[in-house]
Amino acid sequence: MKLCFNQATTLENSNLVRDLEYCEKHGYDFIEIRTMDKLPEYLEDHTMEDLVEYFNTHHIKPLAFNALVFFNNRDEAGHQEIINEFKGMMEAGKKLGVQYVVAVPLVTEEKILKQDIKNSCVEVLTELSEIAQPYGIKIAVEFVGHPQCTVNTFGQAYDIVETVDRDNVGLVLDCFHFHAMGSKMEDLKKADGSKVFILHMDDTEDFPIGFLTDEDRVWPGLGAIDLDGILSTVKEIGFSDVASVELFRPEYYQLDAEEAIKTAKETTVKVASKYFEFDTVEVG
Question: Could you write out the DSSP letters of every residue in 123-176?
Answer without folding.
Answer: HHHHHHHHHHGGGT-EEEEE---STTBSS-SHHHHHHHHHHH--TTEEEEEEHH
